[in-house]
Amino acid sequence: xxxxxxxxxxxxxxxxxxxxxxxxxxxxxxxxxxxxxxxxxxxxxxxxxxxxxxxxxxxxxxxxxxxxxxxxxxxxxxxxxxxxxxxxxxxxxxxxxxxxxxxxxxxxxxxxxxxxxxxxxxxxxxxxxxxxxxxxxxxxxxxxxxxxxxxxxxxxxxxxxxxxxxxxxxxxxxxxxxxxxxxxxxxxxxxxxxxxxxxxxxxxxxxxxxxxxxxxxxxxxxxxxxxxxxxxxxxxxxxxxxxxxxxxxxxxxxxxxxxxxxxxxxxxxxxxxxxxxxxxxxxxxxxxxxxxxxxxxxxxxxxxxxxxxxxxxxxxxxxxxxxxxxxxxxxxxxxxxxxxxxxxxxxxxxxxxxxxxxxxxxxxxxxxxxxxxxxxxxxxxxxxxxxxxxxxxxxxxxxxxxxxxxxxxxxxxxxxxxxxxxxxxxxxxxxxxxxxxxxxxxxxxxxxxxxxxxxxxx
Length: 458
Ligand SMILES: *Cc1c(COP(=O)(O)O)cnc(C)c1O
Description:
By secondary structure, the protein is of the alpha/beta class. It is built from 18 helices and 15 strands. Helix content is 42%, strand content 16%. Pyridoxal-5'-phosphate binds next to helix 12 and helix 16. The site of pyridoxal-5'-phosphate (PLP) has 19 residues, from helix 12 and helix 16.
């Protein structure tokens, strides 16, 4: 076997031509989305006023294992994909571990994260359908930036509701979005009913992702020819992100490498769902016993401390109900928690796989995350996003276990983005001012109290 290079290249011709639909491999599907008014399972008709048709079809598709990537999307992918699949030789050496660590780096495009993979797909389908404008929310800003780029490419108008604290902490993000032509509105705002209501009740609030979603959805359903697009959580977003796992598999297969452990950070679950897709498909087919570990922040622990219940995807309670691991749509993560991964729920697909025992979950405290980020930056060179650094932390911990046991395992993790827009968080860490915050059971109970009181949750 050849020695494995630092970076495993794959050619354009070997890039995936279809996304992998993990649901078609699952023995049991996640519980259906519920219409929030009738509490009946959502039909395509329920979803079409909010999302565009092709995306609704993908959302409800549990049978097609592969779904073709339209040529125009593949051409856009060629501008920044394949993304690098690297062997972390220098990190391994620093740790003195016999483990082999691989990472798939999705931060190599201007938006700085994997979110562009789904943004371009969603805008393409909207354009095909004759939609003229889109709305969305953004927290840390990666999704808004990705969508701005995609909208610029296809000539689509875009309104981005940006969580107010983030827009204050990251003014430069806003300028990137505006440069690509997006209209960026700090949320909560006075441009929507739900925004005005929240502002009246909590005038000082810095906003939340759930609240920004509510504003964006309100505008989408009340504006002609406008749709809402979401950067995570939903099944079609995981579908688009499967390009991450598919490319990783092509690269590793070139050298006969099969991962023993696949690790990803979990906000809404989309990069993790995309990274694990082809490996999980093999496991579900009984062809491998690879382990999957999802990592979340200790300050927003939906998998490790959440309830598996039906919940709204947004604070405004306008979106369909999804059965998922959730802290309650009213859960407000501590403001001292840096960066993304603040969402109250988790992808229904990831939730179901976790519930059925195919996935392990762990939570980590942010000082440990930044410690891992710093070691990674100093050894591997790449400056990681705080979100991605949750996965780095777990990869390091697994590699250190290998050091103790003397086992040489193949560890693959998702390095979802760069940290260039998270300087405030790095500054806090470097100044020794970063504190860890773990919500108490009482605080979580307040979030759980906001779960919908419906029969399915009793
Ligand atoms: C948005 C984001 C995440 C988390 O979102 P998922 O849907 O869980 O993948 C992780 N890393 C980066 C860099 C992000 O921008």
